[in-house]
Amino acid sequence: MVFLSKKHTQNCKFVHGRSEALLQLPKKCRIAEVGVLAGDLSEWILKNMDPSELHLIDVFYCDDFPDHNRFKKKDNYRFVENRFVSSIKGGKVFLRKGKSWDMLANYDDEYFDIIYIDAAHDYDSVKKDLAQSHKKIKPDGYIVMNDYIFYDHLAGFKYGVVPATNEFCVEHNWEFLYFAYHPNLFCDVVLRKIT
Ligand SMILES: C[S@@+](CC[C@H](N)C(=O)[O-])C[C@H]1O[C@@H](n2cnc3c(N)ncnc32)[C@H](O)[C@@H]1O
Questions:
Q1: Which of 23, 102, 138, 164 is the most buried (most CB within 10 A)?
Q2: How many A from CA of 58 to the centre of ligand 1?
Q3: Rounded distance, CA 130 to CA 165, Å?
Q4: Is the CB of 37 inside a 6 Å radius of any atom of ligand 1?
Q5: Which atom of ligand 1 is nearest to 40's Cα?
Q6: If DSSP codes are grouped into helix, strand and coil, which group holds residue 125?
Q7: Residue 118: which CATH number?
Q8: Is 1 domain-assigned?
Q9: Helices 123-136, 161-172: inter-axial angle, 10-degree rounding
Q10: Where are the beta strands (DSSP E) in 35-170?
């Protein structure tokens, strides 16, 4: 287990939720959401962050959240495509269907201003998403990690987000900028390169 030093946390602000954290980040820039499901956060990003481009990366083969149940997995892609049809036609939203790390690898290096990571939560997958994101983020960009928690106590799954995130910060000299509270402690953390 890798531990963070003071330099990784000394500028970190605790905020009430992920929307408060995301609202502190630049507007009108290139954003990737890695792990989209129905596009609920994507819609919020479009309305509140006015991205120049929003790239939605997912396998798009997942049932909806059980409490919503808007689609079954075979209709996941079509649901999201319909939801953003006008922004897709307008050249603002792009759907990229496939494994997150493979899809990220297709972009030019230093392409994105913000990458929001919320796809597979096991350690190996988060490491791969972070390794690709490190290449694809601009030097002054932000990586946001969803579900910064060791264990999903609602579903009974171990998550690798905490160790993968901490290792990334220590290995690449990144710091925590915002720690966003979530009522069930599925917190988000916003990371940036230490300057
Ligand atoms: C928790 S949901 C995303 C929720 C969304 N970010 C939001 O806040 O509304 C996780 C999504 O990641 C996708 N996913 C899981 N592993 C993936 C992988 N390796 N590559 C691409 N997508 C993946 C699932 O299909 C699912 O749609």
A1: 164
A2: 6
A3: 8
A4: yes
A5: 9
A6: helix
A7: 3.40.50.150
A8: no
A9: 40
A10: 53-58, 93-97, 112-117, 137-145, 151-152, 157-158
